[in-house]
Predict the structure.
Amino acid sequence: MTATTHDGLLFGIYPGGVCGDDAGGLTSGPPDDPTRVASVLDRLQGRAGRPFLVRAYLGFDDTTRLGEPHLTETPTAADQYAVRGRRLDLVAQYRSAAADVDGYCDFLRELVEQYGAVTSTLQVAEEPNVASNPVLDGYYPAVREAIVRGVAAAKARARELGHGHLRVGFNTTPLFGPAASFVAELTGRGGEEFIGDLDYVGLDFFPDVFQPVAAAELAPAVEGLLRHHRDALLTPAGLGHLPLHITEHGWPTGPDRPADRQADVVETVVRTVAAHARRLGLSGYTHFSLRDSDSSNPGLFHQFGLTTDDYAPKPAFETMWTLVEEFSV
């Protein structure tokens, strides 16, 4: 897919119960129930064989042992959900305090070997422009080098193994002010070889979560952000031809955050993405997340799910099911 073609959105979801917070920690709650996860994924995907991504996270740090299997951190054993036409959206985090870029590249090669057959998208690093939070990859030294060299390493190994289906990319959060140079810094460092190896760019964004947006202004705000990202950031950096995938979007319920509002936000954002997909080269949408981390905890980061932590659907679940039926590839 290029930025000028569009035949529907590739949908996906993160089905785990762990969520990072803004203080550098991870939420906790009831453990995942694989049987119920699979059942809810079946329902959300709809017909068997429909393309659908299962987002999963694992990371490289200075304790990672190379040369042995690497298990997904959340959800655990994510490859069990890559059935009925579903495939993994694998996020390979870079968390090396020692700036071990060589080790990270070896890690990526091993991920391609281990998961390549059931993976559609391999994301090199997670929110690498965010330098203030140790849960995210921008906190660690040499993250730009890790992305440029990591994309090349993963893509080369995929070619060697004949995994022509495996798309390799990176993502960011919205970029404004001094941070707006991040993508251009990557392409400046990696040059034409880096640009040629990339298959997509991802964007994590959470409108009306951290900064309030009035309901009437949400659709224009989403459109404006997506246009800014495409026209002011990707295109000048030489990436205007690549698909842009919404790699994380969600809205949490909780005190003063009603479930009906969550459904409205999800519908507004997805319909806005679909309406501008052709013009802005938007290839897909992945929701964060399937279930709450802990439905009894009122904290902002504990109730992002389309379901509660015991997999009872919120109104937004049926909204998302309808959107998948209407706009999916």
